[in-house]
Amino acid sequence: MEDKKGAFESRLGFIMAAIGSAVGLGNIWRFSYIAYENGGGAFLIPYFVVLLTVGIPMLILEIGFGLRQRGSAALSFARLDRKWEWLGWWAPIISFLLMTYYTVIIGWTLNYVGYSFFQSWGNDPETFFFNNHLGLTSGVWEIGNIQINILITVFLVWAANFIIIYKGVQDGVEKASKIFMPLLFILMAIITLRGLTLPGAMAGINKYLTPDFSRLTDSKVWLAAFGQIFFTLSLGFGVMITYASYLPKKSDVVNNAFITGLGNCGFSFMVGMGVFGVLGYMAHQTGVPVDEVITQSIGLAFVAFPKAISMLPAFQTLFSLIFFLALFIAGLSSSISLVEAVVANLMDKFNIERNKAVILVCGIGFLGSVIYTTGAGLYFLDIIDHFNMQFGAALVGVVECLVIAWIFKASRLREWMNPISDFSIGKWWDVLVQYFIPLTLGFSVIKSAIDEFIK
Ligand code: PFF
Ligand code: NA
């Protein structure tokens, strides 16, 4: 083993960890509502186009770069040229920001596991979510300005992260991912099958699968697809760079990137069937058109789903338990990748032990999370997530692409990766990472900045 930080025991371990990072709240909670907001079937075409032209090529870039440079993001860039080290630090900074609220939403899923036992949301899951759970108005379970129910679960989420990352790459990240991923797949497959076999499901599925070509000219739909692909594949956070640095030096890059990208998006596609099936069922039960069964898209997982569950003919408690447990597992396996990436940067830079870095990151991270457990939490979450994704990750993506493709040189990386990979990529990849991705992504950052600040 070449460094003290750690290494994956097997290729399968790496793939499970990479998929564990990719498959998260983004695949169930975020994907469903973004697809819903962007017209269902209208969204799937841009989503898959961006996956193939940007997502997978970027995965190849990040995995290849991490494997070649053998370090966390900052170290990998520093090894290219000291001048570029700051770029590597950008990634752990936005990762840290993301961690502080991502863990809060995972906390909510744990709360909802608890509520599931009693079906606490009753017949009004919306009021329950905002008032009881988040404490926006009535301040139930509130002490000072803090929602105690959320504070407790957020603490548990950080504790789980602490334990796993403390154990290191092989005994922590790899072991956990090998258990979590198959389990997650089984749980979500059960939910999807249930959703698909409910009366009225077909109306929902139609909304999901019928392409709407007229919306393809709407730049908003494309921007949403960009954002979702970056978020869902954990791109621009230095996570894939860090994980790849734990692979043995001569490992496959190209096939691993394809497996991770297609596996992640295949999972989302499957979950989408279940979710839209459930929406179709709700339309069927209430007589409201599919388009209008929900009004609160962000609350899809926490409002619409409990609502749908209350309408199920049987096993309500069981299905809500399965659903929220699945969300929890998906979220936890993604959050550990963020914590690991930040920890790895600190270990690389300051030469500190893993245990010290973990205590530091989890301690400060937990404190950062507390702000989202207050009555104003949802407000902050919305704003910070928006900026972090729209400008943080996307900007890292552009610059990372430019630096690696032009300064390290795309052709050099490709010629190094091809012989060690299961199959090769051609010159088309150079063109994508040198021109196509920086241009389209750069355009998307500028376009959202204009929409944001000028209009
Ligand atoms: N990919 C995760 C999801 O889809 O939920 C979120 C995520 C994890 C984004 C790790 C970025 C990251 F570095
Ligand atoms: Na994902």
Automatic annotation (TrEMBL):
The chain crosses the membrane at residues 12-32, 44-65, 86-110, 146-167, 179-201, 221-246, 258-283, 321-346, 358-381, 387-408, 428-450. SUPFAM superfamilies: SNF-like. It comes from the Bacteria. Pfam families: SNF. InterPro entries: Na/ntran_symport, SNS_sf. The lineage of its organism: Bacteria, Bacillati, Bacillota, Clostridia, Halanaerobiales. Keywords: Membrane, Transmembrane, Transmembrane helix, Transport. GO terms for cellular component: plasma membrane. It is a multi-pass membrane protein. This is Transporter. It is found in: Membrane. GO terms for biological process: sodium ion transmembrane transport. PROSITE patterns: NA_NEUROTRAN_SYMP_3.
